Amino acid sequence: MPLATTRRAGLVDQVIEQLRDAVTQGEWPIGQRIPTEPELAGQLGVGRNTVREAVRALAHTGLLEVRQGDGTYVRATSEVSGAIRRLCGSELREVLQVRRILEVEGARLAAASRTEEEVTELRSLLERRNAELREGHWEDFARLDAEFHFAVVQSGHNTLLTEMYRGLTEVITASVAATSNVTPGHEYLPEIGHEGLAEAIADGDADRAASEACGFLDELLARVEQDES
Questions:
Q1: What is the pLDDT of residues 37-77, one digit of tens each?
Q2: Are 76 and 82 in contact (CB under 8 A)?
Q3: 25 lies in which domain range?
Q4: From 206's CA, which of 6, 48, 85, 171 has a CA 20 to 30 Å away?
Q5: DSSP assignments along 97-133, one per residue
Q6: From CA 215, how far away is CA 164, in angstroms rounded?
Q7: Which of 77, 97, 132 represents a domain boundary (last residue)?
Q8: Which residues pair with 64 in a beta bridge?
């Protein structure tokens, strides 16, 4: 299927979306070299700088791999699987350490500041997350788990902490997937539930909420450190 010519507004985002679709829909399979920068620019009706920026963004997510002097290749069929390929070992450990710093205090603040509407949203996200896990919809599970943790932090009503956490969305989703082995063909590791965290926030128990958040992240860190040893 030929790529569509883009509109003039938001060119980079449009090119990113079209290149992503070509990968996820199988037009360019894993391991294949994609068309050259001039070819893509001609097909899409945009400048080479726009194509270069879009390719760089998708390489950052793990979907594409730029090989200097050779071309750009498809590395993964989705951004979650691409992120898993990149996120492992000491890098994964560091992400979990940062998550612990942010999420423990985020949980404490959430227990003190959450609204009833936010409690309802947390429980809804948790139910949807668990349903996707039961159905084996791995990427949706990882996405909803990350959304749940973001909702916890957001419920603390600290704008700076929320924006810091929002900036880590990609690596947080990848860390969920990497520590759960939520990809087809992998045995799922024993589930770490978050019902205790949600209920501690609902009860307004800041210390228990912080303990719940710290507990599951410590468990994930222990798993990673065991794998590294």
A1: 999 999 999 999 999 999 998 888 778 889 988 999 988 77
A2: yes
A3: 8-77
A4: 171
A5: HHHHHHHHHHHHHHHHH--HHHHHHHHHHHHHHHHHH
A6: 22
A7: 77
A8: 74
